[in-house]
From TrEMBL:
Organism, as annotated: Denitratimonas tolerans
Annotated TM spans: 21-41, 61-84, 96-115, 135-160, 201-225, 245-263, 275-295, 307-333, 345-362, 382-399, 419-440, 460-478
Protein name: Cbb3-type cytochrome c oxidase subunit I
PANTHER family documented for this protein: CYTOCHROME C OXIDASE SUBUNIT 1
Superkingdom of origin: Bacteria
InterPro entries given in the database record: Cyt_c_oxase-like_su1_dom, Cyt_c_oxase-like_su1_sf, Cyt_C_Oxase_1
Amino acid sequence: MASLTLYPEEERLRGGERVAFNWYMISAAILLVLMMTFGVTMRMAQARWIGVPPDWFYKLLSMHGAGMVGTMGMVTMGVMWYFLRKYVRLHLWAFVANYVLFLIGALCIIASIFLGNYGGLWTFLYPLPTSSMGLWTPGAAALFMLGYLFIGVGALLFYFDAAAAIIKVHGNLGRALGLQWLFGGTIDSDHPKTVVASTMVIIANSIGIIAGAVVLVMGLVNIYFPQVTLDALLAKNLIYWFGHMYINATIYMGVIVVYALLPRYTQKPYPISRPFLWSWAVSTVFVIVVFPHHLLMDFAQPRWLSIMGQVVSWGAGFPVFLVTVYGALTNLYQSNIRWNLPSRLMILAMFGWAAGIVPAILDGTIRNNLVMHNTQWVPGHFHFYLLIGVLPMCLALMFHVMGRRSDEQVPPNSTADNLIGLAMLLVGGLTLAFSFLRGGLDSVARRMDVHLDAWLGSDVAGAIGGSLVLLAMLYFAIRITAGLLRKPAAGGSGAGAADAAG
Ligand code: HEM
Ligand SMILES: [Cu+2]
């Protein structure tokens, strides 16, 4: 069946497309190694293996948080672009502009932290950026926020271009989501799952980014005109609306890899279904209104918002997650799966996402949040599904494309790939995630540079797990950089090879 060949012709990257894709993926791999180095440094500091001065700890924590969230956003947009461009006409300039604005934003953030000493964390909670107790200047805080604005504008450009292209083909976003088939009718079996997922992300993340832009501008105004004070609770709501959306969008963009590639590796069709459309439609709404679960302990918050946050938390992640894991398992069942690095990474991602959701939902429940709030339980749940869920989704695409560039046009699958890369990511990732969750059980406060003696056990485990992950990622980054920079294999690449610039 044509659609199940590993490397269909219409997916080939041509000229500028290949260069842009390479920049996205290789930058992401390098940034991940860097940000993980900061992560390991912090975990080692908590374990007292090394000494890190407190101001440096919070600078590293700010860089790690902002850098990881930004990098995951950037790379998963690359994933969405890679598959969506087959179905609708995306403009390469929008994809490139997003990258350039991301880089400018990243440079602002790096400068504000390492030159300006900003240490107010990636959530820039009001009034923290302006209340630095002399550690950084208002200018440094402003530069940090300006960096976010650049990144947000880039993402909006990319999403609006994608929205226009989708509307051109499907008429409107509702039809692209497949709403017309929710209550009956024959679903067009050619309707791409990629379009459904992309549309959901465009709607939800655009709203989130605009909420973020509003509070960033409010924050900037406050920095330069301190007489204009903000409502702290409103600012916090807007920030978490943005923050929750942005990081969750990375899962919903990343999972496109599974929809698009898994059936090619299992060599079994993965049809679109009504439950699939229902789950994406429901999640489109839920993911937008679920963010109050970050404010469950803010007693000034209207009660109904907290209740909504809790109830929707139970439902928000579930539909897409259930339908995807069920779909993936059905697709795997009695299939002739080709076992190699990309397919293993996809299975790992399904596991990481599935398992990581459990501690997330536990924490989104008010009764539990009373004791888990701001403990290491929180980094426990999100490192779980980001590190063992979203990251492997992205790596699967990188290694898949790398395979296309190899002489034999087969996906990578060396012993080193599986042992140094995959196995170490799994073992290290689980150790790190459980070290944080265990910390949560012991009520270890999150975001603390100095830990009590009684907490050191989980810190040491975390330092070991984090180091393994870092080594695995270093190995992956070298493989990816070398593999993607290769000219496409001579066989069958035709014109594509002639204009290869990347
Ligand atoms: C080698 C891998 C990693 C290590 C060792 C690591 C380590 C850490 C540590 C020690 C913290 C602070 C925990 C605390 O509050 O006590 C942290 C926070 C965080 N990490 Fe990681 N991390 C790693 C990978 C990642 C990845 C892959 C992502 C995202 C894709 C990520 C995103 C974050 C975020 C968003 C925070 C929260 C920052 C904040 O509280 O302001 N980390 N990480
Ligand atoms: Cu959230």
